[in-house]
Design goal:
The structure is a homotetramer.
Chain A: E1 3-4, E2 9-14, E3 20-26, H1 40-46, E4 62-66, E5 68-69, E6 72-73, E7 78-83, H2 92-95, H3 105-111, H4 129-142, E8 147-155, H5 161-170, E9 177-184, H6 198-206, E10 212-217, H7 220-223, H8 228-231, E11 250-251, E12 254-255, E13 260-266, E14 276-280, E15 285-289, H9 304-322
Antiparallel strand pairs in A: 1-2, 2-3, 3-7, 4-7, 5-6, 8-9, 9-13, 10-13, 11-12, 14-15
Helix pairs in contact in A: 4-9, 6-9
Chain lengths: 323, 323, 323, 323
């Protein structure tokens, strides 16, 4: 459900157009310096406003409701809240029966019997990644000296990302992308057989991020077409260092001391400016749907910091287990 | 750790060359007909012995230790045990310091301080998928009318799988493969936001299966290079039926009533007949390693039924949550 | 840690003198009518101000931050926040080294290395039961037609509770009490062997409530001195109705259809007006401690509604499992 | 369900008259010496055969199925199995509709729709405490230098326990008892607010043991009639040592470094030799029930070692969390 982690455990809540979104972070060690301004750098990386992202601008100011005293974590649960401010009112009730293709409108409506908050995607909105990003800021402090860096490697199948975005905007369309994440300074022995492999926990988290539809570790899908003699990583040091890193730093689900490397596939935002067809689930008639408003031409631009945050949460939990 | 699932919960145990491998299945509803012979069909699909698989043959006879009375499940935990019979003795202690590339030898040794059972991979052996397969037989009975079918689509990058295996055997090498899994008859509304999406739970399970290094749902990595207008699945019926299925039957982490489709990447077995180099972690010297014995040239041949089983376990758990 | 429940899962946060206290309620079914005013009746039962309770008065206004739309639950996590308003500033840092006997001051200091929030007990304050009470209001709506009623049966060993309180106030002392809780309309079959018996889950929750030091079901400790022939409850109807109810409505950890009855022991509030001795953990000197401020002479007066709330949460979770 | 613990996690299975009973112990650290003979001492304390216990004698030989290699734990899950040998066949199907008062017959029948194994109580049998005792042997090795000792303090309300048992046998009746458990050498800081207090986890475990109907920590129910000035434990040392121990070594749910002390109430075995009345749930007729066979006049005699085991499991889990 809305919690993740065994020891460093986050619980997410909120809606896109409700009071706000937030997260409770349990299992955070005491004594970690923490202030509102510590969130700025990562939150700004997730922010919209630049080319290819929605012009909806939110101040995204985090408010620490609990778990911090004298600017240090106390060991009690931390709660970070982001109030919503820039929400446009419109007739969401009228749209409730006209599910947007590729969004969670239809599934949410079915699952919750029509009681879900439909405004801006409600609890399914990408805005909830704001809360993940905030929890990631805390997790990153815990996992030092591990460093995580995620980058957008291609968008719409194009390595020239700027060009790809220009084309998508011009076509009133959206594009997906591939984000690669690398962690350095990872100790050996993280991960637990049989069901809590590093890959299991990481993918569990990644597929919680809206729009992610694939993940691969190390050589991943390419490994499927390789021979064992090529794919095997030769161990060249008693620290576990390998000559290559086709296994992405993980053997038997456990970190081997090399960099962890994985890539996630981000699908194109389903919200596009061109008209689309869908069914009205009340009238059983096809409708021509125009999603006006503010869209991300390439949501993948805003995903890297969320991927980093999600992975930092996984590592903070695994480090706790390992101690 | 070694448990998976919230309601339909499996706990796995055992080693490749120890007493045996087994699984406890908790949360199984009472009244389901179950006998030892029900396991035969799926277990034989996982069996070795055919071209491209190891000649180690085990009778793989399941023994039901608990949870069944008068050939029906009782509602109490089911335990299925497979005794090991065909294990070859050899000097594993001598090999303990010479980790095989691509295997869990190094990570297990580090994590467990040298106390792990090294014989045939111990608890990290692919033999534990026998227990998953057995639990899957039970799960498949629970999820009716949902049907799951997984097939090997390509091996070593070759769609002609028989040819690919011949080449691998001749080269004394191993090859990976891609397994596609499809579930039909899936109801809407399975899956839980935010962290227990169908993709999250499924990938969590899949990455527990040794050798799996990638997963994608629907158009997956291909979606990353598609435009939204192409990737969006047009909804054409109030039951949620879509014209295409690029989202693999899942929106917002919740099933939309279409088939669930995903693909996993299986890496080539690290055990190959050709000599390899590795480090002796005791002497800090490079060693020339020859892994004699019995190998799978293409372990992916035996994976489809395990993927089915793992996915059936996930669905049995999700159906329980949904009720 | 700070979460309880498998399906109907609450996550608590906050401090006595920080921003506020709150709770996230996950797994609440959609479509349940809910407004801020629904909390009034139970919150007022927990309120202080009457004889024997602290004169610290808080408005205790709940704010719904998420999970409600159009005055109905949506199925997404509900967050209820109570801002603190009536907090007195004082020199808590000076008192940080002088642990009050019977409180969590010493253990919190040890566990969190001195980083805990010491003001008014911080995260260990009885004020967090406000959040439990709020979650209980929601749970009570879910478990209908089950009705729960808890009452204070004795205080300071005296059945005349008003008299007992007068005496305690006069003596500048505090007294404990025994609260009995009864649930009517309970269906059969709630509870799960082996480890999730109704008694296990209920006691787990009850001992989370500060000051509770004992629990017994049915005839409880009295049963230990009874004979089987007296203690056995004769079954007199095929619905499971029994002639007596020494087992408190539970056999083998599972509800048998009779009323569930349990009693909890509440210890006297450790905060008393008389001077006490304790150690200064910094100077290693004994100190004479006077806890001025506002105390409850009998905290047990305010506990019944908290016990009801906690038990309603347990039942909401069990009903979910049972479906 | 049938698992307990977050890190040191046990999963129990089996039936009284089926193949056997067993337990999987996950999260056990590697390198702990363990052999079958290590179980002897505790298992013999639980054994029947002496005055006041059932004459059914089982050899109770533990078989280690997994997780041990070269007589040391490996870090992989340990499985301990006890095969049943001394089971008497009788017409359990005929008795399936005649629930014994005070037993789980009625509730099991309702919950599992009649598919439960009724033989000797099936999965609800006290025989499953054999598995708990075995897991406790392992846990006790982990928690060193903590020592746990549980003793039967009174039986049938009589401090002269031998006399009480003689009287019960003569009366063809059964009696309950009170077991006190004390742990010495306990470090500070075990236990987690808000919901995983030491009392919460301990009581959760204790109420899983069949026949236990009450628990109190420190002065427990007596505290309810005490004044704060009497009940408060004066702290006399910077190590947390207190002059008295009314709080049973726990404040705010966290260990304070003093001995942990708790007492559990064991109800009299419902199986008695005298005739009883019950309802036939098939015919809706009252029946005169004579439970022949082998009974414990005082099951509480066999409970202390089970209480120790259960508490050792709790402490092993808490120590893991604390690290």
């Amino acid at each position: 459900m809305n919690s993740f982690g065994r020891h460093f455990r986050v619980t997410i809540f909120g809606e896109s157009h409700g009071y706000g979104v937030g997260i409770v972070v349990d299992g955070c060690p005491p004594g970690i310096p923490l202030e509102e301004k510590d969130f700025e750098a990562d939150l700004s990386r997730r922010k919209s406003g630049s080319k290819g992202t929605t012009p909806r601008k939110e101040p995204d100011l985090p408010q620490i409701l609990s778990g911090v005293y004298n600017n240090h974590t106390t060991g009690a649960p931390l709660t970070i809240l982001f109030a919503n401010t820039n929400t446009r009112s419109r007739d969401y009730e009228a749209l409730k029966h006209i599910p947007r293709p590729g969004h969670a409108d239809f599934t949410a409506s079915k699952k919750y019997g029509g009681f879900h908050d439909p405004r801006g995607g409600g609890h399914f909105s990408g805005r909830l990644t704001l809360a993940i990003t905030a929890a990631g800021v805390i997790a990153k402090k815990i996992i030092v000296p591990i460093q995580i860096e995620a980058t957008l490697q291609e968008a719409g199948g194009n390595l020239n990302i700027s060009e790809a975005i220009d084309q998508a905007i011009e076509a009133k369309d959206s594009i997906g992308g591939v984000v690669q994440c690398r962690a350095t300074g990872v100790p050996t022995s993280l991960g637990e057989p049989f069901f809590d492999s590093v890959e299991s926990l990481t993918s569990h988290m990644m597929f919680s991020i809206p729009a992610i539809k694939g993940i691969e570790f190390g050589s991943g899908f390419q490994a499927a077409s390789m021979k064992g003699s090529m794919n095997n990583d030769r161990i060249i040091s008693i620290t576990g260092k390998t000559a290559t890193n086709h296994d992405g730093g993980i053997n038997g689900g456990i970190t081997n001391g090399n960099d962890i490397v994985f890539r996630v596939a981000v699908k194109p935002t389903p919200s596009i400016s061109s008209p689309q067809e869908t069914i009205n689930i009340k009238t059983n008639q096809m409708e021509r749907l125009i999603i006006d408003g503010r869209h991300d031409a390439c949501i993948a631009l805003r995903i890297p910091v969320v991927v980093e945050a999600g992975f930092a949460i996984v590592l903070a939990d695994l480090l706790h287990l390992q101690k």
